[in-house]
Amino acid sequence: MTQLQSTVNELAKKESEVLREQPLTPTPIDHILQRLSRIEVPAKEHFERYMRHKWRINHKPRTLASSFTSVMFFLDFCGKSGKSDIQQIERVDLEGFIEYEQDRGLHISTVRTRLACIIAFLHYLIEQEVISGSVLKRGIKLKLPDVLPRAMNPADVRKLLCVIEDTRGRALILLLLRTGIRIGEALGLTLNDLDIRDRKVHLYEGEKNSMGRVVYLSDDALFAIKLWLRGRDKNKEFIFYGRSHGHLCYSTARGLFVKYLKKAGLDQKGYTIHCLRHTFASELLNAGMRLECLQQLLGHHDIEVTRRYARLTDTTREQEYFRAMAIIEKGGIDGDY
Prior knowledge:
Blueprint: H1 3-21, H2 28-37, H3 44-56, H4 61-80, H5 91-103, H6 108-127, H7 154-163, H8 167-179, H9 183-187, E1 194-195, E2 200-203, E3 213-216, H10 219-231, H11 250-263, H12 275-286, H13 291-298, H14 303-312, H15 315-329
Antiparallel strand pairs: 1-2, 2-3
């Protein structure tokens, strides 16, 4: 054995000893499998294999949790309907589950999300030749209301910013308002993601669709973040850290936003922290930004998702309407219809 091989083997041995001494931190799949072990549903072994499969192909913890909940409710429904064998499942069971969830009062968007998770599970079973492909021979579509995004009124934005005095809160709210990033993305930012000199924030992996992107800092957001960076704990990894070593949790951030809304007298207007993202998009469109640029900043795969904001606010359309209406009101329209 050469000296190099001996050194490599010695290092490998020491590394394995260190790993054995360190306690293993439970992973998201460990938590899910532990929950699965405590319930009784049909096709439990196939369900476990499916969840392990999703973990292996690197699905996010939130996606795993959503899939687990949806499939668990569906299998439980099938079991209570007398289907003890997964091969007995038919299309009518899927339709029955949808009706059951709607009867429980679940919002149609929640039902559609659960349906998507269940169909993905059934596709997996079809690929594994556990069930027949006839179950999904015809698609099931749920029509969702095409609602407009809710943006904050410009006057309300000014009221909100006027009441935020603490540097951390102001930095967080202005970051959301001027970059349009999601609250989960903001809370997960570390100092390495921030480029103060070039006024950029690097999102290496988007929260919702894993699509990385770069967003930019306006003057007021940059100033607020610089103030916060001066006073924050320099030993913390995350820009907005919590009491432990992790980042500020969503419920705390949401609580701060609600507190500011109450202080500004805006708590009865139905604003959520996600409205800051909608406000960002609406204001940029009103200022003349092209839809394709906004799509990249928001991290949308499909430009049709971004196009919703063009329905919400379009100064050109508004100006055209009032120009035409002024002619109509003055009696300037002639002719028969």
